[in-house]
Amino acid sequence: MNNILTYTLFSPLVGILLLLFINKEKQSLIKYIGAGTSIVTFVLSLFVYFGFDAANTQMQFVEQYPWITGLDISYFVGVDGLSILLIVLTTFLTPIALIASWDSIKDRIKEYVSFMLLLEVGMLGVFLSIDLFLFYVFWEAMLIPMYFIIGIWGGKERIYAAVKFFIYTMAGSLLMLIAILWLGYYASTLPGGYFTTNLLKLYAIAPSIPMGIQVWMFLAFTLSFAIKVPLFPLHTWLPDAHVQAPTAGSVILAGVLLKMGTYGLLRFCLPLFPLASFQFTPLLATLSVIGIVYGALVAMVQTDVKKLVAYSSVSHLGFVVLGIFSMTEEGVQGAVIQMINHGLSTGALFLLVGMIYDRRHTREISQFGGLAKVMPVFSTLFMIVTFSSIGLPGLNGFVGEFLILLGSFNSLFLGSYVYAAIAATGVIFSAVYMLWMCQRVFFGKITHEENRSLLDLTKHEIAVMLPIILFIVWIGVYPSTFLKSSAASTKQVVTQMQNAKSGNLTPASVIVK
Amino acid sequence: MDSFSTSELLATSPILMLSLFSLIAMLANALLKNSAKAVFGVSVVGIIASVICSIYTFDEPSLPQTAFSDMLLIGGYASFFSVLFLMIALFSICIAKPYLEKEQYHFGEYYVLILIATIGMLVLGSAADLISIFLGIEIMSVSFYVLAGYYRSKNSSSESALKYFLLGAFATGFLLYGIALIYGTTGTTNLLRIVTMYPQVFFDPLHLIGWGLILIGFAFKVAAVPFHMWVPDVYEGAPTSVTAFMSTGGKAAAFASFIITFSVPMSMHDERLTMVLAVLAAGSMIIGNWFGLSQTNLKRMLAYSSIAHAGYMIIGIASGLPLGQQGIAFYLVAYALTNLGAFGIISMLEGENGSNVNYEYYAGLGKRKPGLAALLAMFMFSLTGIPPFAGFIGKYYLFASAVQSKLTWLAILGVITSLFSTYYYLRVIVFMYFREAMDNTEIVLPRLAFVTVILCGIGIVLFGVFPSLIFDLMKSIF
User: Fold this and answer.
1) What is the C-alpha to C-alpha distance for residues A387 and A405, in angstroms, rounded to an integer?
2) Angle B39-B42-B43 from CA coordinates, rounded to 5°
3) Residue B454: which domain range?
4) What distance in Å separates the CA atoms of residue B237 and residue B235, rounded to the nearest whole number?
5) Is A129 within 8 Å of A77 (Cβ atoms)?
């Protein structure tokens, strides 16, 4: 069990290797291999989850092997409270996405499954890396499979959406590359220093970077993450990518990919550049609040269900960023759990939208109405997920939003309760657009004859949904199961920020060997 | 002048071996009927023999450091690049054979010219004297001029050759004039001895002008802006297999010598020189990538990309750091594999009279030839600089060297222009995977070329994931 992280990380590659030797005509075998591999990865990640010591704030299951010795680059992976839940979320959603697309993807299945598994490696790598170079490699490499998934199996405008997705993300990450290089160079200018991208070494020295430069570093990293989140006004790639992507692509995109941005803020921006973070807190908090309200308002006027869900992501992720920059224990905890919640509920919404699209080949709200009568199971599940998304107490969404609002209301760093007050209106708006949409889709009279003959969910589809619903309820009823695994680590981040604020942080001026 | 010794002969064995085999090839070509296949065989054997000699000289303590009165460097650096040039030559003729057979232009002369050009590269890669640099460049270039016009009945090929020759001759003139000025101010043409005259001589204006002129010569050979005008037309007009060889081997050889030569004036850490190089790099990155955006022909697109990549590599020289030099060397390996692979694919798909090199023809290739399309996609990602392919590691080193030498603006410009390039590299993939094929005639892939391209693909993944394979070799030589 010493190399459990490496096994988890690269286990999807085994599936891809197997697929290489399989005739592309054997479609169901290919699907079974895809699903089987991703389930194995999930099981492996459970070993990590249950072996994880929540009280320990250090990196756990650490593995380190030299990679490029000249620049002190190593294969260096580990988990802590900030990443553990995201890893399990990734390994949980991938098999679900694969199984959900069992029948809807008919073309080039072998490539499709390979890209999904490759994507899983990339996402896990991003959450596991504690070397900036390694992190960047996964961060960029992950673009390739997602680009193909949108571009090959997407909707009508898929080419535009795929290229836009790729170039937008690349634009941000290239400047981050320069910042990474600069950090490495900075380490080499210290007495006895040398070029390094080892995150733990950089944690110790980075806060002492002069403010003038720290600001630029912070901006380069944040731009990259803000595009990924996406933070208003950098969100324009998201609706295109979501609407065009196939269902499984949207699930992974919303469920996991967007979290890489918020995770990056928490993992890199705050601890590496605390002083610059304080300076930019008002700006980022403002943008996230604008995002919350703007996303909700735009979602309200959408006529396409998938686009509506896409804009709701902009709104929900705004909450996460606000929570992170509140820099209070409640706020950051809320942000971490809200990342998971959003992954579950938005992932589930995309799955459900995909199911109805497979039946009707449209997502226009006006094409539906009265579905509750013809598809009772579908409607029930949809309503549960909707309630989770709008933060109804008893379901998961409430926990995250409540903690974030609580944290940002009291935050010394934000310095004002106005942010929380405006953000709270987002909760109300989200109830408005989601419930209004549900009303038009599920209730009232059946206005279109085609809808009368719609079949309700199959067992297969219900089986895909149930695990998600289980966790939606679990987190809502008893969140401590999950909150406790991230509690120690978030507390550490917050304490660090408080120390930095009060000037008690003494960054090391010498780099440790 | 000392007479030379056997150890010097052993030390220069890669060059001598290849010269020997090029003579055999020439004889075989003259004496045998239907000689092309035989000459191909002789060339392959000659190249492999020379590779073995290069590996032998790499780390052999009994050999001298330099040969023939310090004209040539021996071992380490020279051997590393010799192997690179020879592998490029080998891969390029493996691509060329089926291509020329298809075009019905399969003659032995082709291989002889490739071998002679490679001799020029080997000389260039090990040159430690401005005279031997000049010799190397000329041996290489003259062969290139002929190769570019190899399709003697095609106008585009002749145009390409003439353009290349006229501009190339002009550039050589600059180089030679520069050498003369350096000799005039220092009394020597030997790089090792020029350094010993510093710092007094360095600030002599004539000496600086001499370096400026030499720089023009190199900038022309590596295809840097503003001496890049020849590149698109020559690359497009020349036979595709020649373009593959020129764009990789020619550039690699020129850079190998560029690094060594400019380590002399760069040792003075003169800001003006750094600035000139930085501007050269910036211009190449901007112009190359900007014009790359509007291309519709793959060969022309790769020509502009070649200009841009010259820009990235000049960053390494401008940095004046070993890190940058290692970066260039790694980048050359990555670039050679990528471009050989890409041109190899283009040559396999090319139709009569240079048709089928437009983006449109690649539509739906992902379905028609999945393996080939996957490889081309990998090459495009590598050129863009996306991990885990080798191109990314090269860029990482070069940008790192820029940041370390306080040329951060150059690194930022580098990433911004990379972003431009993303668009046109991705376009190839868009056509291959996201569009439907227009014609579905069966494509027959020649096995030899396909295997070569697969090897290129394996190479960029291998060196992308385990870059230490190359960097460990380089530790001792930079």
Assistant:
1) 18
2) 85
3) 269-478
4) 6
5) yes
Cα distance between residue A193 and residue A184, in whole Å: 10
User: Residue for token digits 């399989």?
Assistant: A22
Can you tell me whether residue A131 is helix, strand or coil? strand
Question: pLDDT at residue A511 above 80?
Answer: no
**Concatenated DSSP letters of B408-474:** HHHHHHHHHHHHHHHHHHHHHHIIIIIS--S--PPPPPPHHHHHHHHHHHHHHHHHHH-THHHHHHH
Q: What distance in Å separates the CA atoms of residue A452 and residue A197, rounded to the nearest whole number?
A: 60
Secondary structure element (H or E) that encloses residue A76, with its range = strand A73-79
ipTM value, please give it: 0.90
Q: Do A141 and B388 touch (CB under 8 A)?
A: yes
Q: Residue holding tokens 């286990």?
A: A11
Q: Which residues are CB-neighbours of A488 under 8 A, at least 6 positions away? A: A54, A55, A56, A57, A81
Chain A contact residues (CB < 8 Å to B): 67-71, 108, 111, 133, 136-138, 140-141, 143-144, 147-148, 151-152, 158-159, 162-163, 166-167, 170-171, 174-175, 177-178, 181-182, 184-185, 188, 195
Measured between alpha carbons, how far is B181 from B71 in angstroms, rounded to an integer? 19
Decide if B124 is inside a domain: no
At residue B395 the predicted structure's pLDDT band, cuts being 50, 70 and 90, is very high
Which residues have CB under 8 Å from B173's CB, separation 6+?
A: none
In a domain, B460, yes or no: yes
Q: Which of B299, B292, B314 has the alpha carbon at shortest distance from B420? A: B292
In a domain, B174, yes or no: no
Number of residues that this document lists for chain A: 513
Q: Helices A418-442 and A396-410, interaxial angle, to 10°? A: 160
CB contact under 8 Å between B430 and A151, yes or no, is yes
pLDDT of residue A504: 67
Number of helical (H) and strand (E) elements in chain A, helices listed first: 22, 2
- Amino acid identity, residue B359? Y
Residue B112, domain member (yes or no) = no
| Number of H-type helices and E-type strands within chain B | 21, 2
What's the confidence (pLDDT) of residue B393? 93
Q: For residue B1, name the pLDDT band (cuts at 50, 70, 90).
A: very low
Asked if the Cβ–Cβ distance from A137 to B387 is below 8 Å, we say: yes
Amino acid A222 reads T
Quote the tokens at residue B281.
């790099």
The answer to whether residue B181 scores a pLDDT higher than 70 is yes
CB B214 within 8 A of CB B317: no
Q: Indicate the DSSP class of residue B151.
A: S
- Cα separation, B247 vs B335, in Å, equals 9
**Which of B399, B430, B475 comes nearest A159 by C-beta?**
B430
Cis-peptide into A95, omega within 30 deg: no
Per-residue pLDDT tens over the stretch B361-370: 888 888 888 8
Alpha carbon of residue B334 to chain centroid:
11
Pairing state between β A60-68 and B72-73: unpaired
Please tell me the total count of domains within chain B.
Answer: 1
Chain centroid to Cα A91, Å, comes to: 12
Q: What is the CA radius of gyration of chain B?
A: 21
- pTM score of the predicted model: 0.92
**CB contacts, 8 Å: A68 with chain B:** 393, 467-468, 471
Which residues of chain A have a CB within 8 Å of the CB of B388? 137, 141
User: How far is Cα B428 from Cα B345, in angstroms, rounded to an integer?
Assistant: 13
